[in-house]
Design a protein that fits this description.
methyl jasmonate esterase activity; 233 residues; methyl salicylate esterase activity; alpha/beta; methyl indole-3-acetate esterase activity; Rossmann fold; AB_hydrolase_fold; AB_hydrolase_1; six-stranded parallel sheet
C-alpha cells in the first residue's frame, strides 16, 4: 500500500513521469482526474492529444497511418531532455511510465517499438495490447460493439486498421502491465483475458466495478493501480 505522506514512496521510484495516452474518440482531457491525483501524489503526469483528438482539430479523414496518428506522442518521447535521465551505476534508466487506454494501446505499442529506451513501463488500461502483425480493430471485432458507442469524436479508421510490426529487440524489451476493467461493456472481460493470454504482460491488475473508462468511474482505484505498478522494481 502506498502512503503519499511517506517520503520513501517517491525516493524509491525509478521515474516520476507518467505519460497518459487516450483511446478512440477521446483526448488528453479525459485524464483530468488522473492527472490531478498523480500530481497530488507528487508525480509528474503529462496527457497527450493524438492527431485529430482533443483540441487538435486535424480532420480525422486525413489521418491514414498509425505513425501520423501517434506523432505527438513519439515527438514528446524523442524530445525528452537528456538532463532528465537518471544515472544509476553508469546506466541510463528509461524516463517515463507510459499509460494507454482502449485503442491507445496500439499507440503505446507503437511507441514501445519506436522508443523503447525512453519507456520504463507500459500500462495497458483495458487497452488493445496487440501482438505482432495484429490490427487494433481485430480486438474490437471480437465484440458485437460499434466503436462509435465509446467515442466522443470521429475515429480515424486508418490507424486502427493497420497491422503493427512489433519486434523482440524493441517492443519486447519493455515491461508491459495490463489493467482489466471487470464491468466493461465495450471491451469485455473475456476479450481482455484473451489479450493477456495471447500476449502475456509482466503483470495483470484488476479494477472491480469499473466500466471501460476507469479514469471516470474508478479514478481512485486506477490511481492505486498506477502507483503499485510504478513501485515495481
Amino acid at each position: 500500500m502506498y502512503l503519499l505522506q511517506d517520503p520513501e514512496f517517491l525516493e524509491n521510484l525509478q521515474t516520476k513521469k507518467f505519460v497518459l495516452v487516450h483511446g478512440e474518440g477521446f483526448g488528453a482531457w479525459c485524464w483530468y482526474k488522473t492527472v490531478a491525483l498523480l500530481e497530488e501524489a507528487g508525480l509528474i503526469p503529462t496527457a497527450i492529444d493524438l492527431l485529430g483528438s482533443g483540441i487538435d482539430r486535424t480532420d480525422t479523414d486525413s489521418i491514414s497511418t498509425l505513425a501520423d496518428y501517434t506523432k505527438s506522442l513519439i515527438d514528446y518521447l524523442q524530445n525528452l531532455p537528456e538532463e532528465e535521465k537518471v544515472i544509476v551505476i553508469s546506466a541510463v534508466l528509461p524516463q517515463v511510465i507510459l499509460v494507454g487506454h482502449s485503442c491507445g494501446g496500439a499507440s503505446i505499442s507503437y511507441a514501445l517499438e519506436c522508443c523503447p529506451k525512453k519507456i520504463s513501463k507500459a500500462v495497458f488500461v483495458c487497452a488493445t495490447m496487440v501482438s505482432d502483425g495484429q490490427k487494433p480493430f481485430d480486438v474490437f471485432a471480437e465484440e458485437d460493439v460499434a466503436l462509435a458507442t465509446v467515442s466522443m469524436r470521429p475515429i480515424p479508421l486508418g490507424p486502427i486498421m493497420e497491422k503493427l510490426s512489433l519486434t523482440p529487440a524493441n517492443y519486447g524489451t519493455s515491461r508491459r502491465f495490463f489493467v482489466q476493467t471487470l464491468d466493461d461493456h465495450a471491451l469485455s472481460p473475456d476479450v481482455q483475458e484473451k489479450l493477456v493470454r495471447d500476449n502475456p504482460p509482466a503483470g495483470v491488475f484488476k479494477i472491480k466495478g469499473s466500466d471501460h473508462c476507469p479514469f471516470f468511474s474508478k479514478p481512485q482505484s486506477l490511481l492505486k493501480t498506477l502507483l503499485e505498478i510504478a513501485q515495481i522494481p
